[in-house]
Amino acid sequence: MDVIDPDLDLVRRTKLGDCHAFDMLVVRHQRMLAHVISRYIKSPQQIEDVTQEAFINAYRGIMAFRGESKFSSWLHRIGVNAAMGFLATERTRIPLYEALSNTKTNEPLVPEVADEESPERLLITKQIGETVSSALKKLPGELRAAITLREIDGLNYEEIAKIMDCPIGTVRSRIFRAREIISAALRPKLELFRDRRW
């Protein structure tokens, strides 16, 4: 006996005009989609807005969904595209490292130092994080999306290929180029500290 995929059944019912069925798809996938978008968008309000926009785009395009991939993968791709479209307009991005600051003085807050963490080491860690974040922001959109899906979301190449709607070879190439660019940006920082003893 074949097990019916609940998502595919809800998609089928949505295509037949059952609006409640699409509401159920939203309930089932809202958290996942917001999580995907939160990798790209900074504020909770913007995440909520872009998530809603992605669901609207999914509803408008659901007649084109043929069920050749999982609905969640198809929706994931729509979410990434909505986030990238938002970023192209707003020119904002969540940094991989975001310095904490005192809201009154706007001075960076120094984290509590553990025994094994010297102030110098914390400073270096901060500088490396800022360098990676800056390099990531400057990447072309397709490279940034590929490396984020791989290194932050932890997806495999096949999953990324489905989300980005491109061959696996293209995904590998984009990730390779993104890593090369980030490595080139990091190299001068790492050279400064290579020979230091802690």
Ordered list of secondary-structure elements with their pairings:
Elements: H1 6-15, H2 19-38, H3 44-61, H4 71-90, H5 119-138, H6 141-151, H7 157-164, H8 168-193
Helix pairs in contact: 1-2, 2-3, 2-4, 3-4, 4-7, 5-8, 6-8, 7-8
Can you walk me through this structure?
- The protein has 198 residues and is an all-alpha fold.
- The chain folds into 2 domains: 6-90, RNA polymerase sigma factor, region 2, helix turn helix motif (Rna Polymerase Sigma Factor, Chain: A, Orthogonal Bundle), CATH 1.10.1740; 119-193, Winged helix-like DNA-binding domain superfamily/Winged helix DNA-binding domain (Arc Repressor Mutant, subunit A).
- It has 8 helices and no strands.
- The protein has helices at residues 6-15, 19-38, 44-61, 71-90, 119-138, 141-151, 157-164, 168-193.
Instruction: Indicate how many domains the architecture comprises.
Output: 2
End-to-end Cα distance, whole Å, is 63 Å
Task: State the low-pLDDT regions, or none.
Answer: 92-116
Strand content bin? under 5%
Determine the CATH topology of the largest domain: Rna Polymerase Sigma Factor, Chain: A
The percent of residues in helical segments reads: 55-70%
How confident overall, as mean pLDDT? 77
Per DSSP, the total helix count is: 8
Class based on secondary structure composition and strand pairing: mainly alpha
Largest sheet: none
Structure at a glance:
This protein is mostly helical. Helix content is 67%, strand content 0%.
